Prior knowledge:
Layout: H1 2-20, H2 56-59, H3 69-87, H4 96-101, H5 111-115, H6 119-128, E1 129-130, E2 133-134, H7 142-155
Antiparallel strand pairs: 1-2
Helix pairs in contact: 3-7, 6-7
Bound molecules: heme C.
Amino acid sequence: MRTSYVLGICLFLLLPGFLSGQEKQSRQGSQPAQTTTSSKETSSAPASPHQLVITPEQKALKNPVKFTDESVEKGKKLFATQCAMCHGQTGNGKGDLAEVMHVNPPDFTKPATLANRTDGELFTIIDSGTGSMPGEAKRLKENQAWDLVNFLRTLEGKTPAKAAGKSGGAAN
Ligand code: HEC
């Protein structure tokens, strides 16, 4: 009962993202569409490796939003409403919708999960989507996607710099 309610809400929220995922690809405007459209997307759990092709330029993108408590707080709120249904409130990958969709988001609370991802890669994944995850480019402002990147870094165990300007655990 509860699950189908959640699913209904989520589908409603996500639909525009699914529909528009292809057309709005890159905010830099320089890259052609990189998402490989898989015509044979099934409901069975997709195996990683990721279907998204990330260019070296995207990978090297610098995070324009400072890794601060303020940004992390914004990212956290966004995550709770936009991502947790799949990724779980704690980021452990056990959201209700993931279960319903039979997809397996990675466990962000394991430091190894995102350790080798650059901020640019995370941004690109959030922006474009990957596999069964819808891209957010249409619905998020660019800085919001970066706030999410900063929030993801805290799940990994990094601590943001204090507003005072001490650079604590800087993100790469
Ligand atoms: C419909 C469910 C769903 C939603 C909603 C969703 N994701 Fe995902 N996400 C996934 C799945 C499934 C994967 C794994 C995809 C793969 O391995 O190809 C994934 C992968 C990722 C990855 C890649 C991790 C890595 O390096 O392997 C990141 C980062 C991510 N999601 C962030 C987010 C953020 C931030 C949001 C909210 C804006 C979000 N996701 C919303 C299902 C979802």
